[in-house]
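Record format v2
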Amino acid sequence: MAHDEKLVKGLEKKADQIRRDCFDIFGSTQMGHAGGTMSIIELITALYFHHMKFDPNNVDWPERDRLVLSKAHCCEAIYAALVELGVYPRKTLGTYYCFGSPFQGHADRWCTPGIDYSGGSLGQGLSFAVGMALAEKMKSVVKDINVGQGGFLQRYVVRFDPLYRSFCILGDGECHEGMVWEAAMFAAKYKLDNLIAIIDYNKFSLDGPTNEIMNVEPLAEKWKSFGWWVTEIDGHDIRQILDALELANKLYGDYRPKCIIAHTIKGHGIPAWEREHIHLGRGDVIVRGIKEGREKYGEV
Amino acid sequence: MAKFNKYVQIENKPSMVPVGLEKAITAAAARDARIIAVLEDMGFPGMLWFKQHCPDRMIECGIAEQNAAVMAAGLAAEGFIPIINSFLFADIGRAYNQIRQSILVDRFNVKFIGREGAWGEPGISHNTVEGIGSTRVLPNLIILNPADAVEAEKAAEAMLQYVGPVLLRQESSPPPVKIFADNLPFDIGRAFSLKDGRDATIIATGYMLTEAVSALDILEKDGLDVGLLDMCTLKPLDDEVIVKVAAKTGAIVTVENGTVIGGLGDGVAAVLAENLPTPMVKIGIEDEFSQSGKMSPKDELKEHFGLRPEDIAVSVKECIAKKVKLNKKRK
């Protein structure tokens, strides 16, 4: 699909701004989940600044698209996006990790309006997104007065667009969790075509290469065999991200949950972090990375 | 027979907790379309019976408790009121971290019914005893443990009215006794006094209330005036009433169908230790696992664990002796 060059350039610029905000967040504590955050910058940018229904002035809007960040340790990217959208003032960036701050160490729905899921214990987000997607189906049925008899599955209403979509960003290491696959089975059973899982496949976990720790391959085939629609993209290419998301939207009504496997690089764009496949960085490595990042992505 | 509160109407007829639950949940579901059942392949002891009333509000997750718990949280986040009914070791134990992280942190309106208890035929895997202790430590969770069908109905009504996560502990193998009158008043967090006493007070929860009622008869024959308190809400505990009965009788015996570590007994002991140190005896399962046991002609496990009325009566006397000894020392 051809995209408006202006849109793509604009989103790329926005992604750089999100990166700079993340440097501010990391800089305030000299600590952070730098690797996983850098690998989802483009995904978060495309979702928040173009694709998702999201109203910065009404973050509880019932028809907003839901975003469940299952790898909730990478919430820095969402915090930066929320600041860019004007939900939180810029000075909040400096309060990351602080007591009473809306920017907690892991994403927290209760403390941070605008965030849909409190995560941190890995593997659970997909089930939560599945619950939200199922709720959308059930709400739509209740609304429809011409319902026939039988279970609500037989009464799915054919519409051009769901009330809202549920997006879920999973890490690749997270796919080691058994309950991810419980949720995958469940989503296929209940035909949740309003659910879009995005896997940040950055190939590295805390102890080393993800597939050496526990092989998740063949990943695409796995999701396909669970009854999902699957596509693989370069998770740092805005054009491919937009294509995949639009296609997933257009396929609504095919009764299949959608899975986008985004191939990414841990610590993307920052040599110090890419080299070490950094997970949770502290002190020197963070400072070096921020310096490199500010030089590379600094405002022109 | 001991003289009880007007809301107590003891009859020797089956009054099972599930019957009360079904009544309350069916009535509430007819009024409120948000109530849905999340099933974990538990058959009729689970919530398969809900199909007769609301077939289109059944979400079957299969034997996958972790997904069921978090999926229910997602439904609750969108305004539904999911009820999960399974063995406590499965719906809570198997999904402990999921419940903590995805439900309790955000206080999502998910209701759990967890079956457990020390006795029954299934054996060590199903006769679990750690449910109260392992859940009392969780913030934002209300824990109820009704004693018969009437109290179960009231508790389930209150559970569905309350906005937030609730665990209703349903004990296995009910005794064939109805305790409460149909107009029993019920509030979450309020203990119910069946009888005031002078010499000691028994604080019981769940089906152990039935055993405690029988114990009162034995004690009365021995000339002792013993009070009985029903602690249906295990969290938050009714501190005020506990301290009040301790001040009045000076001897407290707690009775529960579960481990004495971290359970009702420890909760009461903590309240008293901080407010009014009082001689106590905790009756329950002493730090061990249960096993299979026949219920009739005699209840083998109840005998093994010392949870029969005569055992309770002995413990009450032991507690009164402690009190007398302490009073002498103080003089």
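The domain at 186-330 of chain B is CATH 3.40.50.920 (Rossmann fold).
The radius of gyration of chain B is 20 Å.
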